Amino acid sequence: MIRILDTKQVGRLLARKAARFTEAEAVVRPILDAVRQRGDRALMEYARQFDKLERKSVRVPPAELRAARDALTPEFRAAMETASANIRAYAERQMPRPWTTQLKPGLKLGQIVRPLDTVAAYIPAGRYPLPSTVMMTAIPAQVAGVPNICIACPKAVGEVFGTADLLGVHQVFQMGGAQAIAAFAFGTRTVPRADRIVGPGNIYVAAAKKLLAGEVGIDFIAGPTEILIIAGDGDPRHYARIYASDMLAQAEHDVDAAAILLTTSKRLALAVASEVERQLRTLPTAAVASKSIARNSAVIMVRSTEEALEISNRFAPEHLSIPDASLLPGVLHAGSVFVGPYSPEAAGDYASGPNHVLPTSGAARQRGGLSVTDYLKVISVQELSQAALGKLAPSITTLARAEGLEAHARSVEVRL
Length: 416
Description:
The protein is an alpha/beta fold. It folds into 3 domains: 3-16 and 224-353, 3-Layer(aba) Sandwich (Rossmann fold); 22-222, Rossmann fold, CATH 3.40.50; 385-413, no CATH class. It is built from 16 helices and 14 strands. It has helices at 11-14, 22-38, 40-50, 62-70, 74-94, 131-144, 158-167, 177-186, 203-212, 236-251, 266-280, 286-296, 305-315, 345-350, 386-402, 406-413, and strands at residues 3-6, 99-104, 107-115, 118-122, 148-152, 171-173, 196-198, 217-218, 226-230, 258-263, 298-301, 319-322, 336-339, 376-384. The strands form 3 sheets. It has a 6-stranded parallel sheet, sandwiched between helices. The radius of gyration is 25 Å and the shape is globular. It starts with a strand and ends with a helix. 44% of the residues are buried.
């Protein structure tokens, strides 16, 4: 049964943190050390133990990828083509551009944009294998121009392998967990070393990314998935069905997922609670969703839309659903925003275009979702004439000597 709370009780929901990593880190550390020290030998041992790998290498042969592609149904291919086109178009709009400007006479400034050399995407395959994550991680990398794109998936999932092959991603590895993250972080004879590792995963994947951040670039450390819905005005009988379905769509991901609805209407709150129970009775994933609803989800009564926005910004949700665009100016922290009754979170998960790899557990206060910029370097460029350097020299030398860096000052003066 979903809880109906008032704002006095919201503190415990807002205090919900990312999964505790202490125990997971203790499990993960020896795996990272083993792959660092013994490379492919350790990787294969873990692949056989945890991923039940039977072939002699974690690298998936091209023939297996082609066979998986050929086995895809026409309906799946059509869906993938539609989604891929939108994801690609959105990533292209995100691309930063190189530019050059003459800021002052003789002072030319600019930036150049360069892709990372090698990126790796982790594709989960636990309760729900996610071929959609292949598109969400690989396509922005392709738009960025990354020459070496790798993916890792712990199971031989036909849709995952086939999607990769259709996208032209042929560096595919059947490996999972912390050992996959370690292989990409350190590189082995079989697995290339990556500049950045992206994509969602379980607590052990997240713990490995946390421990290796700095040695390898990562996107972010993801916790359980979440949605926050700010309800609008309207017929409770109609909107209760919509809001309940959105909450259950999030809840079915994982028993630790959270779905929160904020509303000013007690009538709507009761209708949503009743509708959640009704829809659960016919939901094939009810065993998971019902636990998420009972443990981590709630309908919260608020006094106004302004209070709902304030709570939302404190929560900084991964997914935020709002009734209309008039609320957008008040949204300060969110991973991805879904506006209006015809913008379900599922659209963003699959086909509308924006990325579904998003920050959770309050990380949306620091950054947005995965984007093409995660695969790029923006490099500054500057060119000064002798006259321009002469005009800047007093400022440069004064600041350099104030910091005790005499050679800095002399490196300017010697040119003049």
